[in-house]
Amino acid sequence: MNIHLSSHHLIPLDFKSLVSLPNSHTWAPSSSDHHPFPDSVPVIDLSDPNATPLVRRACEKWGVFQVTNHGVPMNLIKQTQLQTHRLFALPRDQKLRVLRSPDGFSGYGSARISDNFPKLMWSEGFSMMGSPLEHARQLWPRHHANFCNVMEEYQKEMKGLAAKLIELMLRSLGLNNEDVKWLTHPQSLLQLNSYPVCPDPTRAMGLAPHTDSSLLTLLYQTTTGGLQVLVDGVSWAPVYPTAGALVVNVGDLMHILSNGCFKSVVHRAIVNKVHHRISIAYFYGPPWDVKISPLMKLTDHPPLYQPVTWKEYLGYKATHFNKALELIRNDGGEIQAN
Ligand SMILES: O=C(O)CCC(=O)C(=O)O
Ligand SMILES: [Fe+2]
């Protein structure tokens, strides 16, 4: 499905002014909503001597895990959370001053994946590629320094942790950083998500089911849960907020790189009636123009995917959404890129 909506769908609702769900935001329940999953996403302590095999198992079975003892200062996470609330608490017309352009990466707006669904989501977001200075100046002409410092520091910490986790994932497969030399210049995007209090959460969708296009995503979801992952294609397992933990999602590019060994996890965010939920997602990937393909050492069976750059892959994702991986699969996507 690829429904191209006009750019006004980039503009989130004025959530505060609504006492009921408008039809544009009312979703039919899906059959998997009735299959809650009893097991829960693994939590891995990075200081555990067994962390490497635990990471491998989590990536193969789930495509997602939580990490504790990750070394990112809790105070910085709290500051980032505070600045995120500060941004979304701004009056709507002020946030609309920094509206993301339809094909842009930075700024305020509805979820990028909105174009692929017939209904709209109960959320708003703010994305940053590199420094947020330009937008922050428009949001707070005089008081933007704190926001910028915190977001830049957070990106720096996430970059270090992402590199560490990639190394761990590679090591778990018998590989090392020499196999991904191009990762000395990673590319990343920081995305703040806001899910306002919702009058009818069972019929609304915070963020519709998707996989991330990154190599990996590091997500902080505060103490208000809402993230769910799809297990075996039929059941939604909640990812319970765990004090100080960060959620690690395997993204599509890591699935490709691992020649299908690691799952890229399908996930979604649900909303609730009581708490305004925020989450902070850091997407980490290769430089835009580097071709990613299954690592040769893992191709004891033929490579499953054709080489693709992150930029090209995002293009496929925009046109074919959850069929994008099929499109570059060697054993025959029937779909043709257009
Ligand atoms: O808010 C969440 O828990 C999920 C966010 C997410 O999946 C994303 O930003 O890609
Ligand atoms: Fe995601």
Question: Reading side by side through the largest sheet, how are the strands ordered?
Answer: 1-2-10-7-12-5-4-3
| Proportion of residues in helical segments | 25-40%
What structural class results from the helix and strand content?
alpha+beta
Indicate the mean pLDDT. Answer: 92
Distance between the termini: 14 Å
The proportion of strand residues reads 15-25%
What is the helix/strand order?
Answer: EHEHHEEHHEEEEEEHEEHH
Helix count from the secondary structure assignment:
8
Count all strands and give the number. Answer: 12
| Overall 3D shape | globular
* Main beta sheet: 8 strands, mixed
Residue runs with pLDDT of under 50 for 5 or more positions:
1-6
The Rg value, from CA coordinates, equals: 19 Å
Bound molecules: 2-oxoglutaric acid, fe (ii) ion
Which terms would index this structure?
binds 2-oxoglutaric acid; 18% strand; 338 residues; alpha+beta; eight-stranded mixed sheet; 8 helices; four-stranded antiparallel sheet; binds fe (ii) ion; single chain
